[in-house]
User: Fold this.
Amino acid sequence: MKNTFLARQPSVIVFILVLAVITLLATVFSEAYGSGLLPTNYVKILGKTLCLCLIAIAMDLVWGYCGILSLGHFAFFGLGGYMIGMWLMYARTEDIVIASMSKAALPPTPGEVRDAIGTQIFGVVGGSDVPVIWSFAHSLPIQLALVVIVPGLLALVFGWLAFRSRVTGVYLSILTQAMTLALSLYLFQNDSGLRGNNGLSGLQNIPGLTDIPQSVISIWFMWGSALALGIGYVFAGWIVSGKFGNVVKAIRDDEARIRFLGYSVEAYKLFIFTITAVIAAIAGAIYYPQAGIVNPAEIAPIASIYLAVWVAIGGRGRLYGAVIGAALVSLLSSWFTGGQAPDLPLGFYTIKWVDWWQVLLGLSFVLVTLFAPRGIAGMFDRLVRKDAA
Amino acid sequence: MLRPILIAALLALAAPHLAHAQDAASPSDTPAASEEILDDAGPAQATAPAPAGPLQAILQAHKDKVAKASRRTVDEVITAVREAGLPQGLTFLERWGDRELWQREEDGLFFFTRKADGQNLTLIDIDTGEEVGTISKGEMNQLKPNSGVRTVIASSLVASQLEDADPARRRQALNALERNADESHLEPLRASIAKEDDPALKARKERLLRVITISFGQTTEDRVEAIRSFSQDLSIDARAALNPLVVTRIGYSEGNPEGVNVARLLTPGKTIAREDAYRLLVDDGKAVAARTRGERKAALEANIEDGTVGGVPVAELSSQEARDRAYSNLVADGKAPAFVTDETMDAELAKYTFYEAYADSNTDVTTAAAETLDSIDQYVGLNRFFSLVLDGISLASIYFLAAIGLAITFGVMGVINMAHGEFIMIGAYTGYVVQQIIPNYTVSIIVALPLAFIIAAAAGIALERLVIRHLASRPLETLLATFGVSIALQQIAKNVFGTQARPLTSPSWLDGAWVINDVVAVSYIRIAIFVLAILFFALLLFVLNRTRLGLEVRAVTQNPRMASSMGINPDRINMLTFALGSGIAGIAGVAIGLFAKVTSELGQAYIVQSFMTVVVGGVGNIWGTLAGATMIGFLQKVIEFFNPSNTLAAQTYMIIFIIIFIQFRPKGIIALKGRAAGD
Assistant:
């Protein structure tokens, strides 16, 4: 089984090797463990990019392999971030509060501690009580479980409703986009219990590890991200090879025919939709502690569309294509919009990339869709194998 | 007898020069002439002659009461002046009230004055209005009646002003009364109604009479009747007159409350917070003040001795139970004030009956007022609902305009154009640019509408020709490619016009609102957008159902290949529909720009709602889009109505509702049936 799986997905081994090399190189050049050539900031960017690659794999599974153009996977990503963020923020605030209260004359009661935490966290949205949804925020294991459970359940319910009524194609895309918009609008409210548009912040400070410098933590998180990406890649590769994968791809190609062959198309789609939502959530849970802040703007529909853009540019239906697309476009985006890219003087007009990158991205996206529907990976295939499907 | 006098008084007030000319005693014809005479009379210090008009005589008889007027005595003077029936009497009363009456120290005569040069005053006879000389300010005393006196004077003037022959003055008097009416105005107002011949003013007077009767009616029956007459009234002043009647205060009594007009009984813990009820008792010294948790904590902290408080080690005090124990020990030692436990508090509260009582002790009046206010509230609610319906229609028209272009292209070509929102934006920016060139707002709007259509349609044709045509069989790819166009267009707009919002000013005839009553008002812009939506709805119905182009569009919508074999060129139809749909988006952009700020993100704000409208309404049918827009518009407004403080939540719930709605009608409200449905 193992042999056949790897034989069908030769890219897995190459990918794992490349990933390991990149991570090792980054460690060797890092400030914490190596020569210091690579600033901590860049290590964080690398770690975050690996997480984005992971969600791109999820997107590729659901879109490239199963044909469901979901414009909502970034919502699951964000939700995962929120779930872990609740613990990070609560536990850290608890530490701070207890530290400051220990100087008082009387030892604090649990009620006092909770009130102080509430004021500390929710003062910014005019609240002082800890909302019900934070009931388990004190417990890391429960919040870790919620990282999987909450987005998974949302995807399950939403997917069940959508697939059951045979919503397909563009309708489904619009519906997932509506779900994302609804979620982000809900989170934007101050009384949503998740600090409204302030979001959860200070997530880069890991409770209990405050003595360890960020340069070290960033390396750990980069390794964590790489590990998650590696496992995600192997898992996705395993899913899409074999019989199950064939059914999934067949649904993409001709849904009605598969249904007539007696397969429960809805069950397959629901499984893929939910499992990819969970992968996205896990990616988010690793991403946001590195980013430091998660807020509703991250969940806005546009983010999920960009995700589709990455996968499309990288190449749908190829796992490595999704990874290449996510890494390339997200890194290029931050390079161009970060102001590091040199301006392009045209004589009569100077192109400032901060302003024109979006235009370039949009147009190149149109061009890729028009002329290279298989994306970068498709061109790659054509070079490597002449019989590329 | 009275009428001619009043007319004369009016003339004197409205046009002093005229009165002046009429006055037989006047030696000169014009004020200018009289000034000349004064100039000829030389320096001002000369003693003016002592005038002896009839009014002056009356005032001299009540000299002290005029000079040192008090609220009690002023009536006597007013009565004397009025009984004399002099035309100049009213002028006198007004100017007296306005502190324009002066008394000459030398002989106690009264004058009006006008500022002359330097420290001098020009004296004016109170009877004739003649200038009778000038005098140094130091020799005159200005009479400054206090506010009580002025009120009496003013209300004595009300009657005559309300019956004034000039409607403008009557209106003025009414305006003043509406702001500030009291008991004394009741009778003059009632008397003036019968004589009123202007229907509008008469209605106002009658209404005002009722408002005043609410507070100052003599009998309970009168007041109740007046109160009840407002049960369908939406105006603020009626509610302002009624509300003080139902003001309540919270009180308590042992046993049943007596001697108060009880609005309702209160149950501590339910209708009144226990702490609040208890505080009432504490404030009156009927109970011992409860110590709050914080106060008890402070007491504990103050009594730490050798690491223990009240015998309990400090380290153990990390639970409320332990702290309560320690505090009880402190109380037992007399080191802290008594600890009111919840049980004692409840026991104390149980001894009393708490109630809300009306400040007004007249039960009939308060009951009538409360019921009338309820009735008004219901009526306001009804009008709010009506207003809500209007809002819903207005929002639905906006969504219709924004979505109809999308619906047409989606219906005909089966592709979703993610750049549709940017075509709306293009329309709005077209309007903005046109306004920069043509300063006249009316003309610029008239130019901008067709221009926006043309430009957006051209953009649509370009998009169709260059991109969408090549992705004909791949709808998901179209969605993404048009999204690429969308972000590119948005960023280009941002680069060209900047990130700040650009104003699109509506012509002045679209400013303001159509006010139906105090609750319902619709702004003219929204009416205009509604008209525009209706217009395009009718136009599209006509084009699609009554023209050759429409026939071909419908044929391509139903089955492109069959249409093609019938000699229709689907390519051409696709292009034309795309142009039409995009053009309407441009028009929608101008309309939206009139009430929203024009930014590069304008289209984004409407695109998801437009998708919703299309999905909910169903594809390929204008009626479907109309139904979808109506449903979404109304839904949003209704949710906002129930949760007015939170429009974000409203949108969230609406989207959830739509997701659920799609479960039951996956193809929208109006779905194509049979072969036309395609798949």
About this structure: Residues 293 and 365 of chain B are 45 Å apart (CA to CA). Chain B touches chain A through 56 residues (CB under 8 Å). The radius of gyration of chain B is 40 Å.
